[in-house]
Amino acid sequence: MPQGATQGSPGGGITQPDADYMPFHPAPSRPGFVPPPGAVDAHCHVFGPAAVFPFASTRKYTPVDATAGQLFALRDHLGFSRNVIVQATCHGSDNSAMLDAIARSGGRARGVAVVDAEISDGELATLHAGGVRGVRFNFLKRLVGNAPKDRYVRVAERIAALGWHIVVYFESAELEDLAPFITALPGTIVIDHMGRPELANGPDDPGFARVRTLMDTSERFWIKVSCPERLTVAGPPYDDVVPFARLLVADYPDRVLWGTDWPHPNMTSHMPDDGALVDMIPRIAPDTDAQYRLLVDNPMRLYWPEERA
Ligand SMILES: O=C(O)c1cc(C(=O)O)oc(=O)c1
Predict the structure, then answer these.
(1) Pocket of ligand 1 contains residue 46 by CB under 6 Å
(2) 71 within 8 A of 85, measured Cβ to Cβ
(3) Where is the stretch described as Disordered (predicted)?
(4) Ligand 1 within 6 A of CB of 12
């Protein structure tokens, strides 16, 4: 049973957060950088509320609730227009909390789901109607225990007809082993959190080189320049992350996405100020054209293509 779970609660149901769980920043600063109109926060999560949407019994952590209302208030505070809500591992493959958040967004949120290989066509259609445009395959052992590749392949086959993409979350040190599998997946593949390079090695990090090689093999690969707070060794204001993100934005201007990663699950070193994260954007995307592609054009092509027609 995960730390924080309540004995006897149904399905691991209503819970207390893990004793050492860090809640999101209570009062993020208002950023000095003003995002272009229509900017999309393309990676964030909702948690619960657990009383309505219980966490999965298979979860590896029990967070503090982070609701749709709180997410949308942050969106407005930061000067963003839309969100892409990524199903968090603590909710397993029950996408209800994410779907509820999308339904409350007035068309200003879309989602990335986690689905089982056995999902029915009807359930997939319901997810699509609810705003889902992708699935996430997670390879981090601390989050999912094991990554069932055979099941991931079956899911990839199931979603092909829907025009969804696949989001992959891995540590760059694992990429040598994973690359053949990931490369064989069909369609558009989005790499989470810059492929998690080892910052201590600087931009010559071999894992980061592998991530860039993968990006170079095909225009099917996209990447999120997100999570400086997870990757940094130096800490805020994340000077050590800037060269990594800047290289990706410069080399793949049409295939980069940006997100807050609010509410920053499993942070232990510190909790980032989301306003300060937004203020990093001009440091990694120095001109207005790069900013527009990163924050508006790229995410709109992937998540709201019908609005660009
Ligand atoms: O690094 C993490 O702990 C983390 C966890 C989750 C999740 O639990 O889904 O999502 C993320 O984007 C990052």
Answers:
(1) no
(2) yes
(3) 1-24
(4) no
The amino acid at 281: I
Nearest 5°: phi and psi at 218? -165, 145
**Bridge partners, residue 86, by sequence:** 112
Sequence ranges of the domains in the chain: 40-304
Q: pLDDT tens digit string along 229-255?
A: 999 999 999 999 999 999 999 999 999
Residue 268 CA to its chain's centroid (Å): 18
Catalytic residues, which ones? 261
How far is Cα 112 from Cα 124, in angstroms, rounded to an integer?
A: 12
User: Of all atoms in ligand 1, which is nearest to the CA of residue 61?
Assistant: 8
| Superfamily in which the 40-304 domain is placed by CATH | Metal-dependent hydrolases (3.20.20.140)
Query: For the chain, how far is it from start to end, CA to CA, in angstroms?
Result: 48
Q: Which atom of ligand 1 is least distant from the CA of 226?
A: 12
- pLDDT confidence of residue 145: 82
The segments of the chain whose pLDDT lies below 50 read: 1-13
